[in-house]
Write a structure and sequence with these properties.
Elements lengths: L10 E4 L3 H9 L6 E7 L11 E8 L2 E7 L11 E6 L2 H12 L3 E2 L4 E3 L5 E6 H7 L4 H12 L6 H9 L3
Parallel strand pairs: 1-4, 5-8
Antiparallel strand pairs: 2-3, 3-4, 6-7, 7-8
Helix pairs in contact: 4-5
């Protein structure tokens, strides 16, 4: 069963910027779109015309969102991981999602809305699970010293193992 046919979907709590976030994210990921946005009417409780809840799809995965106010905010306990085929993809997603946000370590960042992302080249998985424990350890150690994951630096660390 694919996630878009699943009864389980991520639902994100925004303060009051769900619509802005939906535009931001759909501008970054391919195969993305903004779905229905429910807006407050004169019946309240929000200002008429402002978004109450909505849906957006990122690379084929549908997210629900609500503008729930400032009671809750995102933290690192929940993150979304983006698997990247090469350094070019790593750089694209890192630069796009970190714009207005905050870089962290080991391929993690927070976007401008405070949502955490892991931008991970598939090559990292291959290197940290190398059959040679010394090579795997070298890749892991190199990764732990990085913010954005740089494939060439990982491979150089692994190649330096004798």
């Amino acid at each position: 069963m694919s996630i878009q046919n699943s009864r389980i979907q991520p639902c994100l709590w925004f303060d009051d910027n769900l619509e802005e976030a939906a535009h931001f994210y759909t501008g970054i990921f391919p195969n993305s779109s903004i779905g229905h946005m429910s807006r407050y009417t004169d019946a309240g409780p929000g200002e008429p015309g402002t978004v109450m809840a909505g849906e957006f799809t990122l690379d084929g995965i549908t997210f629900r969102g609500i503008n729930g106010g400032p009671a809750f905010s995102f933290n690192e306990a929940i993150s979304f991981s983006v698997s990247c085929k090469d350094q070019s993809e790593v750089d694209y997603y890192w630069d796009s999602l970190a714009d207005g946000g905050e870089e962290s370590v080991c391929g993690w960042l927070k976007d401008r809305f405070g949502l955490s992302w892991q931008i991970v080249p598939t090559r990292l998985y291959e290197l940290v699970t190398d059959a040679d424990p010394a090579r795997a350890q070298a890749a892991t150690k190199a990764m732990l010293g990085m913010r954005r994951i740089v494939v060439a630096e990982l491979e150089a660390a692994v190649d330096a193992v004798t």
